[in-house]
Amino acid sequence: MAVYTEVSDADLAAFLEHYDLGRVRALKGIAEGVENSNFILSTETGVYILTLYEKRVEEGCLPFFLSLLDHLAARGLNCPQPVRMRSEGALGRLAGRPAAIVTFLEGVCRNRPGIEDCARLGAALARLHLGAADFEGSRANALSLEAWPKLFAPIAFRADEVKAGLAATISAELKFLQANWPRDLPRGIIHADLFPDNVLFLGDEISGLIDFYFACVDDLAYDLAICLNAWCFDPDGAFNVDKGAAMFGAYASLRPLSAAEAKAIPILARGAALRFGLTRLVDWFNVPPGALVNPKNPLEYFAKLQLLQTIGDVRELGVLP
């Protein structure tokens, strides 16, 4: 979440004429994240999230995302639901951008998740995968293995500005992953961005999963690998095998991993680390002047990649083969 595009009072009023939400009480920008412009919208009828879609989100994919939210909510997953206009549509335009309003979920993020939090996340991810199994929509992963060299090419000459030798590290890892990426794993709808700031807690329980705008069809185990990187490293950069075991154990209690999936986790985790390192690197060099956004440090994910490159046995990540 972030704010790249400001919204005028007049534009907002015209946009809300299509809804039955009452008068605006407040609109506040959200600085976290890097992808879209997001606001907390308070009206006479309640509190909502207003999103203007920017950057990597293709307008043609928005019906997929919004339909997926409806589908998952119908399957019992607590996620934002699109607010419909009087015309029954959920997607409009505001300030020259595609825009939608979704329900606001109560809860706070755990920036430093513990072992039990990782277990709850693993179970929630399994429920997401199972709940989406009969979703009829489909979307290719626009940031899959094939996309990473294209992401890197325009900024390769600047990578060493961030850290000496980073360009060579990335180039070598791209070659390794192209040669060793697992094939024929179980596939389905994945969230693809389930970081701690996209999971809400009330007390000790997860109250909602948010920000589904990278959701796509890919290897289900790749979603686990993304979460492993995002949830199971301690603040000092060390991998916490107890967190990994808690997350994988809770996931597998609802959706058991195949032997091939378990074996693939170290490679998938390396790929996930490279993917987020690359997108952070791109954003590091391309934040528009004046944007209300906090770009994330790409070196965090390249440090995780360096550690993952030393993993020789999947048990070191808490995964039982």
UniProtKB/TrEMBL annotation:
It catalyses: L-homoserine + ATP = O-phospho-L-homoserine + ADP + H(+). Pathway: Amino-acid biosynthesis; L-threonine biosynthesis; L-threonine from L-aspartate: step 4/5. One of its GO terms (biological process) is threonine biosynthetic process. InterPro entries: Aminoglycoside_PTrfase, Homoserine_kinase_II, Kinase-like_dom_sf, Pseudomonas-type_ThrB. Keywords: Amino-acid biosynthesis, ATP-binding, Kinase, Nucleotide-binding, Threonine biosynthesis, Transferase. CDD domains: HomoserineK_II. One of its GO terms (molecular function) is ATP binding. Residues 27-257 form the Aminoglycoside phosphotransferase domain. Pfam families: APH. Belongs to the pseudomonas-type ThrB family. PANTHER family: AMINOGLYCOSIDE PHOSPHOTRANSFERASE DOMAIN-CONTAINING PROTEIN, AMINOGLYCOSIDE PHOSPHOTRANSFERASE DOMAIN-CONTAINING PROTEIN-RELATED. This is Homoserine kinase. It comes from Methylocella silvestris.
